[in-house]
Specification:
The protein is of the alpha/beta class. It contains 16 helices and 13 strands.
């Protein structure tokens, strides 16, 4: 159940979502639903991946952005629109504005992913980089709106945006009619609130679960307090869901309809991204993989068939490289050891030959005679190896010790 009993009717219902779907006909794609054999085996029942990473602009955000912009009157359209986003909403607004002939200005955090900035500009929007987080960009965007008269298009806190995002939920029920759990990455609450509106009205027995990054988890404390609470700070690789305060519109929506909000740490997000790449052959950004992270962390917790919404695939290649490496470490696919060997010709070659015979791939090696309290006649070899996982790491350590090496 929700942490807070609803005191008001949620601002967005099933009729609103269905109306948004009519508006979006021919604009967005009905994204594919991919079965995951690996997750199904792990979770003990069917698991499906809703591939919004394959949506136009690379995320679900075009759904809400177009719904909001299409409902502006002529006077509002003439004044233009302004938005704030870490990248996905920015691209959604920019494309929607281009399609509708509306001038768009977008404020993005200074460290926004370069591909997201480039894509937003490519859709014709004026882009300004302001602030360290999305909250700073929102402040700058609202000030711009007050100064120029442009219509501020909030990334999540508006009924039209929630309704547009909720069309994902309609597709989920059509594609997996027997679904029992829907897991959704959660930042400001627009996507999870919209999906809950679509799902709960038709299938109240289906659990809708929001998943937040532990380093930017404003929802648990807010639900406990019964009102939106702001975080003092945030730190997460999942920039797409790094929102410091739930919205005033999304809060009653989520409190009334969403069954549970979970958090996952950075290691879990990294492992989930790596899992999507290796096992599902899908490129998903860290925020977009949050639902998969929850399934990997709690495989027996959710009733199946379960659907994990992959909300976006827009990721900077440099960030992707960092996250893959982090995910490899978290999954015990890298092993770093300091090994003592005798200072004699051939000792290092023997060590490396043993490692190679055990199936590990040496990525880096350094050799020192002066490390710490190293006894005379010994050298320390620092090894970084690529392994097959935790059991392989244990096998390597045991074999090295059995060969007489000190670790």
């Amino acid at each position: 159940m929700s942490a807070v009993e609803p005191t008001t009717v949620p601002p967005v219902g099933l009729d609103d979502v269905r109306a948004a779907r009519e508006l979006l006909s021919g604009v967005v794609s009905a994204t594919p639903m991919a079965g995951s054999r690996a997750l199904s085996e792990r979770c003990g029942g069917p698991v499906w991946l809703k591939c919004e990473n394959l949506q136009r602009t690379g995320s679900f955000k075009i759904r809400g952005a177009y719904t909001r912009l299409a409902r502006l009157d002529e006077a509002q359209r003439a004044r233009g629109v302004v938005a704030a986003s870490a990248g996905n909403h920015a691209q959604g607004v920019a494309l929607a504005a281009q399609m509708l002939g509306i001038a768009a200005t977008v404020f993005m955090p200074e460290r926004a992913a370069i591909p997201k900035v480039g894509a937003t500009r490519g859709y014709g929007a004026q882009v300004h980089l302001v602030g360290e987080t999305i909250d700073g960009s929102i402040t700058a965007a609202t000030e711009f709106a007050a100064r120029t008269g442009a219509v501020f298009v909030h990334p999540f806190d508006h009924p039209d945006v929630i309704a547009g995002q909720g069309t994902v939920g309609l597709e989920v029920l059509e594609q997996v009619p027997d679904v029992r759990t829907v897991l959704v990455c959660t930042g400001g609450g627009g996507l999870v609130g919209g999906i809950a509106a679509a799902v709960k009205a038709q299938r109240p027995d289906v659990a809708v679960v929001g998943v937040q990054a532990e380093g930017a988890a404003a929802w648990p404390a807010s639900l406990d307090a019964g009102a939106p609470q702001a975080l003092a700070s945030m730190r997460t690789i999942a920039d797409g869901i790094a929102v410091g305060r739930p919205g005033d519109v999304t809060f009653p929506q989520v409190a009334a309809l969403v069954d549970e909000i979970l958090t996952v740490d950075e290691d879990a997000l990294s492992r989930a991204l790596l899992h999507c790449l290796e096992r599902a052959k899908l490129l998903v950004e860290p925020a977009g993989a949050a639902a998969v992270a929850a399934l990997l962390e709690h495989p027996q917790r959710f009733a199946t068939p379960a659907v994990a919404v992959l909300s976006g695939g827009n990721v900077d290649p440099l960030v992707l490289l960092h996250v893959i490496q982090h995910g490899m470490v978290a999954a015990a696919r890298y092993l770093s050891l300091h090994v003592r060997v005798g200072d004699r010709p051939g000792a290092l070659a023997e060590l490396l030959a043993l490692v190679g015979s055990l199936g590990a791939n040496v990525l880096d090696v350094s050799h020192s005679r002066i490390a710490g309290s190293l006894p005379l006649g010994d050298v320390e070899v620092a090894l970084t190896m690529e392994t097959r996982g935790r059991e392989h790491c244990t096998e390597l350590v045991d074999a090295l010790r059995a060969a007489g090496h000190s670790l």
